[in-house]
Design a protein that fits this description.
By secondary structure, the protein is of the alpha/beta class. The chain is built from 15 helices and 26 strands.
Amino acid sequence: MAKNKKKLKIIPLGGLGEIGKNITAFEYGEDIIVIDCGLAFPEDEMLGIDLVIPDVSYLVKNKDKVKGFVITHGHEDHIGALPYVLRDINVPVFGTKLTLGLIQYKLEEHGMINDVVLQNVMQGQTIELGAFRVEFIRSTHSIADSVAVAVHTPVGVVVHTSDFKIDYTPIEGEPMDFARLAELGKNGVLLLMCDSTNVERPGYTMSERTVGDTFEEIFMNARSRILVATFASNVHRVQQVINASVKFGRKVAICGRSMVNVVKVAMNLGYLNVPEGVIVDIDNIDKCPADRLVIITTGSQGEPMSALSRMAASEHKKVEIVPGDLVIISANPIPGNEKFVSKVINDLFKRGAEVIYEALADIHVSGHACQEELKLIHSLVKPKFFLPVHGEYRHLKQHANLAHRLGMPMDRIFIMDIGKVLELTEDSAKLNGNVASGKVLVDGLGVGDVGNIVLRDRKHLSQDGLIVVVITLEGESGNVVAGPDIISRGFVYVRESENLMEEVKDVTKQALIKCEEKKKNDWASKKNIIKDTLRDYLYEKTKRKPMILPIIMEV
């Protein structure tokens, strides 16, 4: 029998060497499926950027082959880029009920809900997409309705865990389907792709239930109003806050746009159990005694515009922090957000609130697996090859080492970059070539119109400011009719630097004389000579390098 000549290509377009922006393409012959389609949040040096989405030009180029998007769960770093990507590649989106509920909400905001086909899939179900059979396997994570996927391809089975933790006592539903993973492992798995986010932590991630116990303890002893900040998407955490509130006779108000949205979607779909009359409108919280009220809010990451940050800065329209308030920050700072979070904690203390945060009590557990849980998955799935995913380079490297310690030969482990292509046959795997990949920046309504050059200019302006030199010349003779006028923004305060401004005018005039002598009368040369002369002069005088914009007008 002739061996199958076609190869399975696995192409990560995001989520490797970075946290967030998870998206992977599987290609076989004329068929492509895409697992997840997430966004990342901008780094500090991306001035003014709102979101970062993956570069999907490879998928756009091959959009006739794309059969669908398979979404593992409803976190932003797995669904956030869908509204942008579906504009160019409009194919069906498959996911579980809550995941689709959150995607639907996103698409409504973007006015696209009528253009996209959303297909609801149950945990345990298998769907056919071209050459692929995609099986949805029950999983546990910090959002309800999560799945891992097994992609059955003509060359073998690929298991992708997506984000997961092992929780034997989840808040809702059953634990991860270990029996199915073991069965797949027994029948032979070609490749395992596994979450690396928490690979540096030894031991196990605590069960989500431990947080509920801590909440009950805190609520039992609290004599004032309680505010709980957490991730909007963590429906189980919100459920436990509601449970503790009900137990101790408190009403609950919901604050923060994304929290209001998620709670609404989760209640409609039956993922949040809230007894009648427990939720009160945020506008009516004054009517409720402080020791009978809990406010659930967004802003656990200290994001500058979030509800909690605005409360801490006394800028929130509806909630004023008063001395005695108890604020629980039920989340870990995402790497890079530590400064924001500690600023919010400081501001809350200044307002007289008591703050309980992760360093003080077990009020947060991670949604990602630690080392012992990862070992269990490797031991159950027993893959032939291994590709660590979801993490910065160091996480991928540590996960590769962990797999090696469990007996996997190093030449069967692939630490990949986004855009690289992994080609698999029934018994071989190798890296072969790459495709276009990278970051597309979203700023306001502009998608991809701000690139490195614009960011470089923004950085330059933010660090050194701007000087504009306006000169009016007479068309015939080239003589200066008016100016030079100097406008400075973010460089020096003009009123206190009149001498410097006068000198800048003189230097500009000299530069124009230099142009005359060198017979350089075209505008481009004049602008360049003015720019160079001024740059050298200002650096010598101030040791700063502002952006210099000469404007020449002709009369």
